[in-house]
Amino acid sequence: MNAIEFLEQTFNSCERQLGHHGKRNIRVLKEAFEQIEESRLSDRYGTGAVIEDFQAKMAALLGKEAAVFFPSGTMAQQIALRIWCDEKSLKKVAYHPLSHLEIHEQDGLKELHGIQTVLLADRDRVIELEDVKGMTENVACILLELPQREIGGQLPSFETLVGISDYCREKGIGLHLDGARLLEVLPYYGKTAAEVCALFDSVYLSFYKGIGGIAGAILAGDSEFLSKSKIWKRRYGGDLISLYPYILSADYYYELRAPKMGQYYEDAKELAASFNACHGVSTLPVVPVSNMFHVHIDLPKEKAASILAEVQRATGIGFTSYLKEIDESTCAFEMSVGDQYADLPKEDLRRAFRLLDDGMKA
Amino acid sequence: MNAIEFLEQTFNSCERQLGHHGKRNIRVLKEAFEQIEESRLSDRYGTGAVIEDFQAKMAALLGKEAAVFFPSGTMAQQIALRIWCDEKSLKKVAYHPLSHLEIHEQDGLKELHGIQTVLLADRDRVIELEDVKGMTENVACILLELPQREIGGQLPSFETLVGISDYCREKGIGLHLDGARLLEVLPYYGKTAAEVCALFDSVYLSFYKGIGGIAGAILAGDSEFLSKSKIWKRRYGGDLISLYPYILSADYYYELRAPKMGQYYEDAKELAASFNACHGVSTLPVVPVSNMFHVHIDLPKEKAASILAEVQRATGIGFTSYLKEIDESTCAFEMSVGDQYADLPKEDLRRAFRLLDDGMKA
């Protein structure tokens, strides 16, 4: 077994992890459905109380007229951008170079819709008002991702959001929020979901990030926009006869974890500090602004894997299952704080970080 | 309450129905997951034992190299046709005028792929070899739906299928099977799934028709085709982090009901005969060739609704929740036989059909 495999194997053997809510297993579904009446009827192609009630609840949370539940954010966001493009009769949108749409969707937006993209800002920082004002091309819509996941979950200031929103409204540019992790950033902004969403024309929220559901997404906005989205949802094959396995679990875990986002944020700051106290280890951002951050290690990937695997083996606390090579002498992994961190005894945590620090110094 | 509403209300009040497996409620999910270990891990973006094992099982059933699980048949089939179009460098396909893609998908195939369609055969009959041979346009692929749902689930002969398959191979035309209800037609053909699928280049199978699962579909074919389909699945937003709620329930109900398709077929023939014995009632086809058929009533929709509602009220047996107007003096509804028919006491059935017959004569 090489170091990378040893890292994954030790992670999978750990009963406890630093991040997340626990293993993604069938228990996630069983727990969500435990208290749900067997006689409760399925949704049916987007209709029925199960889906309509949850959509109304999410629309209210996000302060929008309407909301539609989708199987995935990939589907919801491509559709949102397509609708704004049709609205403006312009097949061009702008987003961050590391947007999910640009790097994780096999170019679905371009292949399915022929929509061109303008990449805003540098890869290693968030989009600022100047980037938007400096655009030389007309676009139908700008997508902002809060937090910017691929750079450790960084955020622009709330004032920047207001500035971008004002500018887009003035110029007639649609503004869409990739809010996959929207609830996770509210404690930092000190705002409600509706206050953030008021700056955007449309919003997407995911149910398996901080909320820890099984899958699924909400797209919210005005009623006309959502009516159009339902037609595209049907075209995509996303208008399933039954989405309730995702909807009811989304609702269950939303109720369970939305109130804990503040705790995850505080825990993330504490955890990041523990990493930053280790030799050759730093987090991005240094002080997290949500429940997530990236951990950078000043060692080649194989070397770092050996050290982390040994910490995992010795403590039974899972740090990470993988490492991403940044360059020949640096690697990184992502950390998202969920329910598990708070349950770890402080003494066990201290020992794990002492071992990591020792390993890094050796 | 008008007659149409009365029909729906009485249907929903019935504890028992002529068709289907029972109410689509949360019990469907709970039953499927009852015996599944909580520690079993989720699939993860198309990988993991839960999804890979089921795909391999379905590939074997269908006699194909590989299979991929999709959230929906709409998604799976559009993707299949797109791949064959790319393969032949020709964005044109042929199918029946009442194909699901033509009438139930908001033109997804055309809107998302710009694929043109050629409609084969008349609306009221199945596609025959002559229709295929008589095509004046080149197409990349032909889609055949077995059974042809919108005309009561009619089927071409197996010899016709062989003829169309031979012709398509000779001419280099792809042949795709819309086998949403493939298992349901095997008893009539007296063939295995693999024997039918051998005639086609790609096949789609649904898990919430005769199988009665929650949702989901399998697309099967050769490995190269399926590799391409996974890229499109990602583009569509169908590559969910977790599809297991659909996969494990599909597997559970497949095991439960695949062996019963012969019984559903026999029951459908018996049930159709009961309808045909009633005054002014006939089935399409007269003798079913699967578990499904359409019931045609020689009365205006409102009148027929009153009679059927009264039968439902008096017997507690649900016939239908809706009626579709054919013309001013005729209406129809669809019947799909599942688990429930065999559980209805024959005496109750006789009484219900006597009441229907009496109502029709009055």
| Rg from alpha-carbon coordinates of chain A | 21 Å
Total number of helical segments of chain A? 16
The secondary structure category of chain A is alpha/beta
Helix content of chain A: 40-55%
- The best one-word shape of chain A is globular
CATH class of the largest domain in chain A: Alpha Beta
Profile the largest sheet of chain A.
7 strands, mixed
> What is the β-strand count of chain A?
13
Average the pLDDT over all residues of chain A and give the rounded result.
Answer: 98
Going by CATH, the architecture of the largest domain in chain A would be 3-Layer(aba) Sandwich
Question: What is the H/E order of chain A?
Answer: HEHHEHEHHEHEHEHHEEHHHEEHEEEHH
Main interface pair?
A: A-B, 51 and 51 residues
Give the oligomeric state: homodimer
Instruction: Please state how the strands of the largest beta sheet of chain A are arranged side by side.
Output: 2-8-7-6-5-3-4
Total discrete domains of chain A: 2
What is CATH's topology name of the largest domain in chain A? Aspartate Aminotransferase, domain 2
By CATH's scheme, which homologous superfamily of the largest domain in chain A applies?
Type I PLP-dependent aspartate aminotransferase-like (Major domain)
Termini separation of chain A comes to 22 Å
Low-confidence stretches of chain A: none
Approximate strand percentage of chain A: 15-25%
Family (chains A, B): Belongs to the threonine aldolase family.
Cofactor (chains A, B): pyridoxal 5'-phosphate
GO molecular function (chains A, B): L-allo-threonine aldolase activity
InterPro entries (chains A, B): ArAA_b-elim_lyase/Thr_aldolase, PyrdxlP-dep_Trfase, PyrdxlP-dep_Trfase_major, PyrdxlP-dep_Trfase_small
